Amino acid sequence: MTVLEQPGSSRNKSSLAGPPPTWRPRVDPAPLLPDEEPYRLLGTDAAARLDSGLLTRLYTQLVRGRRYNAQATALTRQGRLAVYPSSTGQEACEVAAALALEERDWLFPSYRDTLAAVARGLDPVQALTLLRGDWHNGYDPHEHRIAPLCTPLATQLPHAVGLAHAARLKGDEVVALAMVGDGGTSEGDFHEALNFAAVWQAPVVFLVQNNGFAISVPLAKQTAAPSLAHKAVGYGMPGRLVDGNDAPAMHEVLTEAVERARRGGGPTLVEAVTYRIEAHTNADDATRYRSDAEVETWRAHDPIALLEHELAARDLLTDAFVGATRDGAEELAADLRERMNADPELDPMDLFTDVFAEQTSQLRAQAALLRAELDAEANGHTEEAAGAEGSAEEARP
Amino acid sequence: MTTTAAPATARKPATMAQALTRALRDAMADDPSVHVMGEDVGALGGVFRVTDGLAKEFGEDRCTDTALAEAGILGTAVGMAMYGLRPVVEMQFDAFAYPAFEQLISHVARMRNRTRGALTMPLTIRIPYGGGIGGVEHHSDSSEAYYLATPGLQVVTPATVEDAYGLLRAAIASDDPVVFLEPKRLYWSKADWSPDAPTEVAPLGRAAVRRRGSSATLITYGPSLPVCMEAAEAAVAEGWDLEVVDLRSLMPFDDDTVCASVRRTGRAVVVHESNGFGGPGGEIAARITERCFHHLEAPVLRVAGFDIPYPPPMLERHHLPGVDRILDTVARLQWESDWTEGRGE
Ligand SMILES: Cc1ncc(C[n+]2csc(CCOP(=O)(O)OP(=O)(O)O)c2C)c(N)n1
């Protein structure tokens, strides 16, 4: 007996069938649904309409980004960097995120998104402060309008919504683009951020880089949704599915979403389908959860190679251009290497600055204690430590 | 108070992480209702490899890679516990347990009480905590004070390889929730330990005297125990004999062992790396003062981390209580002795 044949099923109560009288869908879901296939431009006829200037700009940034990733990874091996989560393979997403924004807009990166920050103009060394460990955040967020690289997953997304909302309340046409990984989409903050953004029609673009894994956990264990882009529909915003290794496609989709947000059209969720070629970080052992063969299939879909194909077809991939691009990337790497090889100058007394706008008496006492310890350390442990206890005492209320 | 029976088989070096793995494995083998769940606990074996091999041995239904959602992990564990399972939840790092606070504080901690014992929460929440490993922001918090401020939670933290095994077994066996704080900088600390010998389950709520002494008591737990032991050894050269008490369990709190020690020595210093203001040391000092006031020869002092957000790795050594800071504080107990004279007081 099927459910419909059971006594009491709706078939036997036809007068009660159908939706409740006042129900209607609040918005038509059809226009919000993502494409069935990730959107691509490279390798399709539509690539012909792409501007050559844009392609060479994207290419330059991709090559620089890859070189940056390689150099940063090398710095972890030399102990100059505590840890580095490489975005090799995902450069097209990083670069497109930066280039889709205007200067007045804000970027909310996750911890893997150093490249997006650098492509937006951030000093490559400042971008690595968090990962080197000299300070939590190495730059002034206002300078390039880049929020601090965020470590707790998805927590930056509601911030992006709030900032974009505030800008609109003030009458500024500012858009926030917030980046998150596939794993991060499972966090409550992701869902709450999307919901607020849609209800407020906030000018936000959410970019999910679906690189296949959250450390070791594959997407299939992360979500049962048809795609991450489909999640948009439930909140009432459009979802776009893009080939994350196709730089012009990424750029086009993000630019459209940014412009739509700026016009008051509300938020968009963009899912970039890409792959993390390196391990999660240099400290991770990726062989425990994925095969080399899988990595190879993605290497064959490399974002730089895909773009080179189009550039070659236009006779733009000249030796001169490739050489100049490579030289520029080498310069970037050499500068990074050199500046990262110098020990950062740190003052331990900075521990007590910027905890509060106004120093508390407790922190003053603790600062005095550390000052005395540092002096004692410098003077090879003499009377100083004992003297400082006095000053620590005096600083107490 | 010792916890391990004399081992029948040879003892060999084992790390704290290995002892924890063994405890999980034995608990799962002994009791089919024990389930391990969390981010990356399956194929990867956890980022610290504490769950290594469990998915292979017990299947993915008993050692489950969850979606990346701490509130979801703990919230579903609550439901599983309601249905008779004993979930052992892994939070990947101290600061990443914060999304689960709502579940922990609003439900896990008070389910027994609000249902008058009809629903219990026999679940264990394993959290690697504390600094000293050069972790970037959000990877080094000492969050014990938050848990201690919540009635209904047991808070346990091992400092030795043997305790890692014994206390984790006890936590999993407990019919009430345990926040099991694993000092991550001790994961790779080694001790001669026999994983093959029957190891007794350590009772929760009993402190251990790790070093006998007569001059003063250092009261500590978790990552600060080895630092205190080193400080106590260094103090010997100056003619001072420090007793070291390892609390092992912050809740239930072993007033008896702590008070007996302080009454013997007359002086106490509490050492922990979480911030001092509002930190566990304040509670411990107050308890000692209430119970041992007439035995005290000096105020109870505290050596703690500074009252600042956990600093970046390159500066953390200045923040963490070290041997010198402990010895300087011990000196402030104002003994009339060579020790203080030697230090120019
Ligand atoms: C709230 C929170 N929980 C756990 C972690 C630990 N963690 C760091 S990265 C990571 C995986 C993230 O995967 P994903 O969101 O897909 O981003 P990807 O690393 O692939 O860029 C985890 C679990 C964290 N940073 N924050």
Automatic annotation (TrEMBL), chain A:
InterPro entries: Alpha-ketoacid_DH_E1_comp, DH_E1, PdhA/BkdA, THDP-binding. Its cofactor is thiamine diphosphate. Gene3D superfamilies: 3.40.50.970. The gene is pdhA_2. GO terms for molecular function: magnesium ion binding; oxidoreductase activity, acting on the aldehyde or oxo group of donors, disulfide as acceptor. Residues 1-31, 375-397 are annotated as: Disordered. Keywords: Oxidoreductase, Pyruvate, Thiamine pyrophosphate. Residues 69-345 form the Dehydrogenase E1 component domain. One of its GO terms (biological process) is branched-chain amino acid catabolic process. Residues 375-384 have a biased composition (Basic and acidic residues). It comes from Streptomyces caniferus. This is Pyruvate dehydrogenase E1 component subunit alpha.
TrEMBL record, chain B:
Its cofactor is thiamine diphosphate. Keywords: Oxidoreductase. The keyword Oxidoreductase applies. It comes from the Bacteria. Its EC number is 1.2.4.4. GO terms for biological process: branched-chain amino acid catabolic process; response to nutrient. The keyword Transport does not apply. It holds the Pfam family Transket_pyr. Coiled coil: none annotated. Residues 14-189 form the Transketolase-like pyrimidine-binding domain. CDD domains: TPP_PYR_E1-PDHc-beta_like. One of its GO terms (molecular function) is magnesium ion binding. SMART domains: Transket_pyr. This is 3-methyl-2-oxobutanoate dehydrogenase (2-methylpropanoyl-transferring).
